[in-house]
Design goal:
Helices cover about 30% and strands about 25% of the residues. By secondary structure, the protein is of the alpha/beta class. The two termini are about 50 Å apart. The chain binds flavin-adenine dinucleotide and S-adenosylmethionine (SAM). Flavin-adenine dinucleotide (FAD) binds next to helix 8, strand 12, strand 13, strand 24 and strand 29.
Length: about 650
């Protein structure tokens, strides 16, 4: 629920709901510098760090973030990457934030950038990048009590700023402090203006040792603390991995591999990208078009949350690539997802109403409204996603590879080289070609080669399937003035030089050439979307065929690959295991099984892997990261085979 701007008698931003001000009446920026930066001994404590992570409770107007970002800019010894993770239950809407920010002219340029990236008020993590990704704000929208429990990260400093404990005790509870302690690296510091006994006791119980320091302006005291538990912690936060060098092999130059290469090159990694074809984007990612849009579910299912996170992340990355001068062939023209029958129509309308979604994200449109929006007579009402659209995947692959090449040390593409085997020795991974020669060697290897990944390592049983799909390309103008993507029983994307209808979906069908019967079936499915179905001459239709890589549970495989052999031999010990307990193959990662959503998931997947490799806060909540963990089928096998014999 967004906050509305209000002010107290002194003109300080104020929350009527909580009966408290957003910052000291003496100065918000002054309080940020003295209490939050000063109380954590910043900027001094971050000097020379590669990654420094701050976690805040209560983002509010973002003054603490803006002060920290300003201090980072001014500091010659700043960390290479500053991560600021902040939880907020009542975010301001963009325009309200603009009017509030106008009161702090010292922050004007940075505040403008913050607002340009400001997300819609939707629950979950929103990743906002500034300074070419060297300053990253991860906004966790939702109630701190729930959100913090579902984060997994390692923090160096904490800002506690959630209104006064007497007015908002939930933000200072022992449970919240325990959640924060779970993130704390040894020696992490914490600061707040509150000196309340309740807060000090909760912090002490969570392992922080507190000291009182001089407060800001009229406040006599403030609290500074250091994480120094007097007991052994059961689950320490993930340590930043130590690689013998920032070098990675990426196998496969489609959407998945190009995105990983770009995200790692942006962090100073040297990439050996290996592709069996003579050019990138030669398989599924070479299809003429892909569409993108989030999914809605009344129960906010894993899939709904993952597609939402993926879509927003992708849009942010694509716009960043364009701002850096890389051309993409895409349109964010809006997408209308049509209901298949009247029952689905009313279900869609109810979902939008119940989830109270902002219209800028999703709205229900009647058939007439949808027809007007799409400029084409459609057969049913449906969900309108203003941020949906289409993209030529190959243009994204090309842009990402160009961006990666432009970094130092950048990227080497080994085109026309097939990896037949990977092997690990003391130094890391080797990608080996058909003649036994080593194509590349590096401490880290990322499998982004779709189905073929299952030949190079085991994911626990038959994990991946190939699903043939055929698109039909119709001449431009075949669907009148169609101005938006239509989706439902089929999809229809209005490109400049044609209209693409897709796509068939056939398991275990290896036919690589387009079939007339599939074109006809594609056109028939359009009949469920459009009042007037295009009737081109089937034999002269253009088309393209590709193969989706789909996991058993339809979710992607993103992250560190489990060690099946080690899991098998430790079966008994792993009986009640969580994904994080699984033994892993050091340095081996997967970015595969993107199914029909390569565009939606490739950038988020790449960021998740890059964040893991660098010990940065991930862009996904813990339950979503677990849902896409490539070790999940190994874990299933271990659980199913407790006390029984072989696991294959
Ligand atoms: C008909 C159809 C319609 C689709 N529509 C959409 C859509 O509307 N929206 C959407 O988001 N997605 C859509 N998809 C899915 C999307 O195309 C895929 O999810 C995406 O392209 C997968 O990218 P990838 O990089 O994982 O795989 P690929 O593009 O297949 O790339 C894998 C690469 O690895 C290489 N490779 C494999 N093995 C080796 C090896 N041993 N050595 C070296 N190189 C190797 C391959 O040559 C290939 O280039 C569609 C797919 C199909 C088939
Ligand atoms: C004092 S303000 C924060 C000011 C902010 N740090 C800044 O720099 O502008 C407190 C914030 O905590 C948020 N908040 C209150 N209760 C919360 C909860 N349970 N979970 C998450 N955020 C909460 C409020 O909406 C408010 O924005």
């Amino acid at each position: 629920m967004p906050a509305l701007p209000a002010f107290d008698a002194s003109g300080t931003p104020y929350s009527p709901e909580y009966g408290d001000v957003y910052h000291s009446a003496d100065s918000g920026p002054g309080q940020a510098r003295h209490v939050f930066l000063g109380g954590n001994d910043l900027p001094g404590r971050w000097a020379g760090a590669r990654v420094f992570t701050i976690v805040e409770t209560g983002f509010g107007l973002g003054l603490n973030f803006l002060s920290t970002w300003s201090a980072w800019r001014e500091d010659a010894a700043r960390p290479e990457r500053l991560h600021f993770v902040s939880v907020e239950k009542h975010p301001f809407l963009h325009d309200d934030l603009a009017s509030l920010h106008a009161r702090y002219p010292g922050f004007a340029p940075l505040a403008r950038e913050l607002r340009a990236a400001w997300p819609l008020p939707l629950p979950g993590l929103h990743r906002l990048e500034f300074e070419d990704g060297r300053v990253t704000l991860t906004l966790a929208l939702g109630d701190a009590a729930q959100v913090l429990r579902n984060l997994r990260l390692a923090a160096d400093a904490f800002y506690l700023d959630g209104f006064a404990p007497a007015r908002n005790p939930e933000m200072w509870s022992p449970a919240i402090m325990k959640s924060l302690a779970r993130f704390a690296r040894q020696g992490a510091t914490l600061a707040t203006w509150s000196t309340s006994r309740v807060v000090r006791d909760a912090l002490a119980a969570a392992g922080f040792s507190c000291e009182l320091r001089a407060g800001f302006a009229r406040k006599r005291r403030m609290l500074a603390a250091r994480y120094a538990p007097r007991w052994r912690t059961r689950h320490a936060p993930p340590a930043a991995p130590a690689w013998s060098g920032r070098r990675a092999i990426v196998i496969g130059a489609g959407l998945a591999g190009a995105a990983v290469a770009e995200r790692l090159a942006a962090r100073g990694w040297r990439i050996d990208l290996i592709e069996r074809h003579s050019t990138p984007a030669a398989e599924a990612s070479g299809l003429p078009v892909g569409v993108f849009h989030p999914l809605l579910a009344r129960d906010e299912s894993v899939l709904a949350r993952l597609t939402r996170a993926g879509c927003f992340h992708a849009l942010g990355r694509w716009r960043a690539l364009e701002s850096a001068g890389h051309a993409l062939d895409w349109r964010c023209c809006g997408l209308l997802q049509l209901a298949r029958d009247p029952r689905e129509e009313s279900r869609m309308a109810r979902t939008v109403a119940e989830l109270r979604l902002p219209a800028a994200y999703a709205a229900f449109l009647s058939r007439d409204e949808g027809s007007a929006r799409a400029r084409c007579a459609v057969k049913a009402g449906g969900l309108w996603f203003p941020d949906g659209g289409w993209m030529r995947p190959a243009s994204l692959v090309a842009a990402e590879l160009a961006a990666a090449r432009g970094r130092t040390p950048g990227l080497a593409l080994h085109a026309g080289a097939e990896v037949t085997r990977i092997a690990r020795d003391g130094e890391g991974w080797r990608a080996i070609g058909p003649d036994g020669s080593v194509i590349a060697a590096a401490p880290v290897c990322v499998l982004a080669n779709a189905h073929d990944a299952a030949r190079l390592c085991a994911f626990g049983g038959p994990a991946l399937r190939r699903v043939r799909g055929q698109m039909t390309v119709l001449p431009a103008g075949s669907c009148g003035d169609l101005a938006a993507v239509l989706a439902g029983a089929a999809y229809l994307a209005p490109l400049a030089d044609g209209v693409v209808a897709g796509a068939s979906y056939d398991f275990d069908d290896g036919e690589p050439a387009p079939r007339v019967s599939d074109h006809i079936a594609n056109l028939e499915r359009l009949g469920q979307l459009l009042e007037a179905t295009p009737r081109p001459d089937a034999p002269v239709l253009g088309g393209a065929v590709g193969f989706r890589c789909v996991a058993r549970d339809r979710l992607p495989f993103i992250g560190s690959v489990a060690d099946l052999g080690a899991a098998r031999s430790r079966r008994a010990a792993l009986s009640g295991a969580q994904p994080r307990d699984l033994p892993r193959q050091p340095g081996l990662y997967a970015a595969i099984a993107y199914g029909s959503r390569g565009l939606t998931w490739c950038c988020l997947g790449a960021e998740l892997i890059a964040a893991h490799l660098e010990g940065e806060p991930p862009p996904l909540e813990a339950d979503l990261a677990d849902a896409v963990d490539p070790g999940r089928f190994v874990l299933q096998l271990v659980r199913e085979n407790r006390g029984r014999t072989p696991i294959s």
